[in-house]
Amino acid sequence: MSWSAQQYVAFEDERTRPARDLLAAIPGTDVRSAIDIGCGPGNSTELLVESFVGAEVRGLDSSTDMIEAARKRLPQVRFDVSDIDGWDESGPFDVIFANAVLQWVPDHATLLPSLVSKLATGGSLAMQMPDNLDEPTHRWMREVAANGPWAEKLAGAAGLRTKRESPSAYYSMLNSHCSRVDVWRTTYHHPLAGGAAAVVEWFKGSGLRPFLQPLTDAEQVQYLKQYQAAIEQAYPALEDGSVLLPFPRLFIVATR
After folding, report:
1. DSSP letters along 189-256, please?
2. Dist CA 255 CA 94 (whole Å)
3. Cβ contacts of 105 within 8 Å, gap of 6 or more
4. Structure confidence by residue, pLDDT tens digits, 14-70
5. CA atoms of 60 and 89, how far apart (whole Å)
6. Which of 92, 152, 81 is nearest to 124 (CA)?
7. Residue-number span of the structural domain to which 185 is assigned
8. What is the DSSP string of 138-149?
């Protein structure tokens, strides 16, 4: 799947807010090295640079488009193109930051302990993932995919996002490897001007990508038309024409 930095940053303030909240929950340690895995266009990396003054801060992402945008944003920071599940550096790092990315990486039971092993003693793996697979936004992605002329093309689209585990399952994955594991869930309510069309634009930069990329341009237009009609019913516009989009996210800070 390809990523578009331009599409992603269309809602940069809203996407960066959870990264700020995640960063604020990292225990106050002397951070000398921090890496932002799945750094995207560098908005979350910028927070690390601002917070950990004097530390070596780096970023990596599998998308060349995202990395190019990040390098333009933060030319003083080293950014590398790499898949997270193929990242073989041993560290140690004081902070490994993973903002809204690990939902695209498989086998969390193996991945998360492996990431913790790259931490220095007292270092933290800080991660947050969208927890919205049961929300109307994502249910309708699957419904429209399964009930259109593109059903065969999109049969595997929903499976490209990693299966969400329960908070207790994530705690169990990490607890034996860490001195402390903090897990919590927050639902943000984002006011989006433009109604249902704005919701569609938001998810074109993330969750809709696996459903759109296999389609022709004409099929994409029809798919999005049906999807937006469903979103209009699920999220009625407010008096000013905006929509209040609920967006639940799961947060974990695991300290070695």
Report:
1. EEEETTTHHHHHHHHHTTTTHHHHTTS-HHHHHHHHHHHHHHHHHHS---TTS-EEEEEEEEEEEEE-
2. 9
3. 38, 84, 85, 111, 162
4. 878 999 999 999 997 789 999 999 999 999 999 999 999 999 999 999 999 999 999
5. 12
6. 92
7. 5-255
8. HHHHHHHHHTST
- Counting the structural domains of the chain, the total is 1
Any idea which residue has 């969750």 for tokens?
207
CA distance 136 to 133: 8
Rounded to two decimals, what is the model's pTM?
A: 0.88
CA distances 133 to 96, 103, 136, Å, are: 25, 11, 8
Residue closest to 27 by CA, chosen among 130, 125, 171: 125
The residues, ordered by sequence, that sit 6+ positions from 170 with a Cβ below 8 Å of its Cβ are: 108, 112, 183, 250, 252
Task: Give the pLDDT confidence of 81-130 residue by residue, as tens digits.
Answer: 999 988 999 989 999 999 999 998 999 999 999 999 999 999 999 999 99
Please work out, in degrees rounded to the nearest 5, the angle formed at the alpha carbon of residue 15 by the alpha carbons of 69 and 160.
Answer: 80
Structure tokens, 116: 């913790």
| CATH number for 111 | 3.40.50.150
Split at pLDDT 50, 70, 90, the class of 1 is very low
